[in-house]
Amino acid sequence: MNKDYLANQFSLDGKVALVTGASYGIGFAIAKALAAAGATIVFNDIKQELVDKGIAAYKEEGIEAHGYVCDVTNEEGVNSMVAQIENEVGVIDILVNNAGIIKRIPMCDMTAEQFRQVIDVDLNAPFIVAKAVIPSMIKKGHGKIINICSMMSELGRETVSAYAAAKGGLKMLTKNIASEYGEFNIQCNGIGPGYIATPQTAPLRETQPDGSRHPFDQFIIAKTPAGRWGEAEDLAGPAVFLSSDASNFVNGHILYVDGGILAYIGKQPQ
Question: Residue 268's pLDDT band (boundaries 50, 70, 90)?
Fold first, then answer.
């Protein structure tokens, strides 16, 4: 084994990667990493404005990304987008189901419609997109699917009942895809981020009027052995690994990138 062997194992040269909801944030960071490893990047977002901003952001990074407007909860729209990608770019080798939403509402204050919205985007959409790309992966003889789960795939916390339910379901969908399609050389794994500093979590990190840290910010730093929030770039290496030949015998696992929070019970009282 030498450097060339390892470089080839992690190379994504010639691969087409679809990262959903990747105009910014975690999806953008993952897509940049896959591009750096050699992949051709395709992404979608729900609005043309977001797609245009995404294309411009990728261009600033020296990446020629292909952007599509698509609501990933709409099966007909997803099937149409995948067909268009296959025609214009190539068969999708790597799928990263990244698009997601969260509604921080106490369970008994949440409407059934709000609950359904979260389940639709965070659980149903990954099913829809995976279902659309798997047939061509089978024909090609290989494929990589990464579902962006969460540490809430394992834990509960107040105000995130819908999100935790969806991410717990996504963990099990990941395992089922691996079980059902592993024989076709398709690997399906998940990445479970901890608390990551993104626009979505910005309200939880706002400095208070008196200059102190937000109480939730203090709580997370105290609960995380790493002593910090994660950065979107912390997910880059795991994403490249799970997209590459280096993970060809890794299937049905969730890789938690959480600074150790799931392993930590907290400091012993003095």
Answer: confident
User: Does residue 207 sit within a domain?
Assistant: no
What are the angstrom distances between the C-alpha of 206 and each of 92, 103, 118, 168, 184? 39, 18, 24, 28, 47
pLDDT at position 265 is 84
Per the structure, the complete domain to which residue 90 belongs is given by 3-196+230-263
Q: How many domains, the chain?
A: 1
HSE-CB at 184 with a 13 A cutoff on CA atoms is 19
| Maximum distance among all Cα pairs of the chain, rounded to whole angstroms | 64
Instruction: Give the domain CATH number at 155.
Output: 3.40.50.720
pTM score over 0.90? yes
Q: Is residue 236 part of a domain?
A: yes
Query: Cα separation of 146 and 253, whole Å?
Result: 10
In tens, the pLDDT along 199-245 reads 888 888 988 888 889 999 999 999 999 999 999 999 999 999 999 99
Q: Which residues are catalytic?
A: 163
Residues 253, 172 contacting (CB under 8 angstroms): no
Q: How many CA atoms lie within 13 A of 27 on its CB side?
A: 29
